[in-house]
């Protein structure tokens, strides 16, 4: 195996480890699974050691693989940064741009914007992962993450894109059948639907006439996807606090009705998060600026109901 072949195998090796399988890595890289396997085999032959333990069901790093992966990932990141700098010198953003976004927000409000962005910047290759879980940007090799709600202390840089307002709501026929709560205490007698990944904690907090009040929501349904909860709300299953970027149209049409409007829910925001770097890659900067232009403002389009 020639030395340049070993270097060209580094992105493949790093991608295999990040994806957890040869098939997923092949899909991300746009090559065949056999080509991925061949590159890894050649790399191991060149290095004279096995990097990966392979079984039919799992893939894991050997001790040597763990040590090599740290250096390989750093080298791959440096190569990507060099590509970014070249694009900046040429005044043309280019290269692979890896982004992770929340599932529902990404589908509803980020995905529709991507075609225009890529038409504007045709030399950027965008890889978008939709996932409601908090992910490690550095470990996953991501350039940018869209996050909503509370942002924990970290070394990441955050740029606010738009406000994220929530509303307690229910379908009219649910309220006709079960009554309309007037205060947080009344919710104990209602079926409260719950989002599993809610970052505000296990309690629902309200700021009302008597100050801040909290309740523990109880109900027969929780899910890790907000669109699923929205469907249950419209069907009249219960009451839930939902971001307006999901239910704004339902509130406008009357499919859902705000409940307890005198009790405000915490105001959050949508953020673009990226690793702190000496120089922000041009491909990241243009995407952030584009999202600010499309989503920004104190009254995003989903709140105009």
Automatic annotation (TrEMBL):
Pfam families assigned: HTH_1, LysR_substrate
InterPro entries (UniProt xref): LysR-type_TF_proteobact-type, LysR_HTH_N, LysR_subst-bd, WH-like_DNA-bd_sf, WH_DNA-bd_sf
Q: What domain of life does the UniProt record list for this protein's source?
A: Bacteria
- The positions making up the signal sequence are none
Record key words, sorted? DNA-binding, Transcription, Transcription regulation
The HTH lysR-type domain extends over: 12-62
Q: Which family does it belong to?
A: Belongs to the LysR transcriptional regulatory family.
Identify the PANTHER family for this entry.
Answer: HTH-TYPE TRANSCRIPTIONAL ACTIVATOR TTDR-RELATED (PTHR30537:SF5), HTH-TYPE TRANSCRIPTIONAL REGULATOR (PTHR30537)
Please give the name of this protein: LysR family transcriptional regulator
- Species annotation: Photobacterium arenosum
């Amino acid at each position: 195996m020639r030395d340049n072949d070993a270097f060209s195998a580094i992105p493949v090796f790093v991608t295999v480890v990040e994806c957890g399988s040869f098939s997923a890595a092949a899909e991300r890289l746009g090559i065949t699974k056999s080509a991925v396997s061949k590159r890894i085999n050649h790399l191991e032959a060149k290095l004279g050691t096995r990097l990966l333990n392979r079984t039919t069901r799992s893939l894991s790093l050997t001790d040597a693989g763990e040590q090599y992966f740290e250096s390989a990932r750093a080298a791959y990141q440096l190569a990507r940064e060099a590509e970014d700098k070249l694009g900046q010198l040429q005044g043309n953003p280019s290269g692979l741009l890896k982004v992770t976004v929340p599932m529902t927000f990404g589908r509803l409000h980020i995905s529709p914007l991507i075609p225009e962005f890529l038409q504007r910047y045709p030399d950027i290759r965008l890889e978008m992962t939709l996932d409601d879980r908090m992910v490690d940007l550095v470990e996953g090799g991501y350039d940018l993450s869209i996050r909503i709600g509370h942002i924990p202390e970290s070394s990441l840089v955050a740029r606010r894109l738009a406000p994220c307002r929530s509303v307690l709501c229910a379908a009219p026929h649910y309220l006709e059948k079960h009554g309309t709560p007037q205060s947080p205490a009344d919710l104990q007698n209602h079926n409260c639907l719950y989002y599993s990944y809610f970052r505000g904690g296990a309690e629902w907090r309200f700021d009302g006439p008597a100050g801040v009040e909290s309740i523990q929501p109880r109900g027969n349904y929780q899910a890790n996807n907000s669109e699923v909860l929205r469907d249950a709300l419209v069907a009249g299953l219960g009451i839930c606090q939902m971001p307006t970027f999901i239910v704004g149209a339902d509130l406008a049409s009357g499919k859902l009705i705000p409940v307890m409007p005198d009790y405000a829910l915490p105001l959050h925001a949508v953020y673009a998060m990226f690793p702190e770097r000496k120089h922000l890659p041009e491909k990241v900067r243009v995407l952030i600026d584009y999202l600010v232009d499309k989503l920004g403002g104190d009254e995003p389009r989903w709140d105009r109901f």
